[in-house]
């Protein structure tokens, strides 16, 4: 089991950028696929982005493709989510998640991940 701590959320204006960080501790970081999900009240957790454990292959949800970039720094045990051209509809609590050796077909499904961070609020004003 790993522990995850997110940081970097905040209040920004539409069109601004924000970078979220998630530091992972507890086990071998490189064996974990990492994902970002987001959730607003009354809605299901939505897949945002994920990065595969066995290489830097990244996957994105349709609503963020071309605007968000996920990356990982294995030396720092950290995964990042760079969010550009933010829109009011990006407003949500963003969660970082880790899954041990998840396959590519599992990355978009939140139930695939065993470990979650506490979440960080991102608010985009119009």
- Helix-strand pattern: EEEEEEEEEEE
Low-confidence stretches: none
Please, how many helices? 0
- Mean pLDDT score: 95
Distance between the termini: 39 Å
**Can you summarize the main beta sheet?**
7 strands, mixed
Shape: globular
Can you characterise this structure?
The chain has strands spanning about 5, 10-15, 20-25, 30-40, 45-50, 60, 70-75, 80-85, 90-100, 115, 120-125. It has about 130 residues and is mostly beta strands. The chain starts with a strand and ends with a strand. The relative contact order is 0.31.
Describe what is shown at a glance.
With 126 residues, this protein is mainly beta. 0% of the residues lie in helices and 50% in strands.
Helix and strand topology:
Blueprint (H helix, E strand, L loop, with lengths): L2 E5 L2 E4 L4 E8 L6 E8 L6 E6 L6 E3 L7 E6 L4 E6 L8 E9 L14 E2 L3 E6 L1
Parallel strand pairs: 2-11
Antiparallel strand pairs: 1-3, 3-8, 4-5, 4-9, 5-6, 7-8, 9-10, 9-11
Descriptive key words:
126 residues, 50% strand, four-stranded antiparallel beta sheet, mainly beta, seven-stranded mixed beta sheet
């Amino acid at each position: 089991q790993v522990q995850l701590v997110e940081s970097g959320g905040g209040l920004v204006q539409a069109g601004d950028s924000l970078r979220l960080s998630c530091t992972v501790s507890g086990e071998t970081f490189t064996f974990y696929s990492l994902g970002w999900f987001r959730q607003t009240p009354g809605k299901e957790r939505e897949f945002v982005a994920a990065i595969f454990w066995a290489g830097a292959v990244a996957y994105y949800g349709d609503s963020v493709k071309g605007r968000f970039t996920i990356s990982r720094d294995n030396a720092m045990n950290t995964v990042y989510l760079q969010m550009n051209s933010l829109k009011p509809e990006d407003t949500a609590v963003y969660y970082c998640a880790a899954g041990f050796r998840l396959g590519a077909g599992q990355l978009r499904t939140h139930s695939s991940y065993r470990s979650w961070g506490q979440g960080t609020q991102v608010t985009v004003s119009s």
